[in-house]
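User: Let's play a game. I give you a shape written as tokens, and you guess the letters that built it. Ready? Here's round one.
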């Protein structure tokens, strides 16, 4: 990422649209796979909450800081639509979901959870 860089929005989204002259993304996904809603970087790891994909994407920044590895999807469907991810003061992550805004749908046990992910 380049601070203040022009990544093309709204003329270009990822690699879709008129993307000439804009900074290209390091990785893209279809909206059905990810629909990113939040991102958190801890050391050299990137965590991306996926609201439409209902999973957390994890990838590592390479040692030169110029690219990322292959993203891995974790917790697929476990907590539903993942909305935010935030680093805690002790180095863990809070992950939240928003599932009860289903346009009149029936709430379930996974509605609006807050999960703490702790790393050893």
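Assistant: Ready! My guess for every position:
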């Amino acid at each position: 990422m380049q601070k203040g860089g022009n990544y093309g929005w709204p003329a270009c989204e990822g690699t879709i649209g008129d993307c000439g002259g804009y900074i290209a993304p390091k990785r893209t996904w279809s909206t059905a796979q990810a629909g990113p809603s939040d991102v958190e970087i801890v050391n050299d790891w990137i965590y991306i909450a996926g609201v439409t994909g209902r999973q957390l994407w994890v990838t590592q920044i390479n040692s030169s800081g110029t690219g990322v590895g292959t993203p891995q999807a974790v917790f697929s469907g476990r907590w539903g639509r993942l909305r935010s991810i935030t680093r805690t003061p002790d180095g863990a992550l809070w992950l939240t979901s928003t599932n009860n805004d289903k346009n009149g749908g029936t709430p379930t046990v996974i509605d609006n959870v807050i999960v703490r992910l702790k790393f050893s």
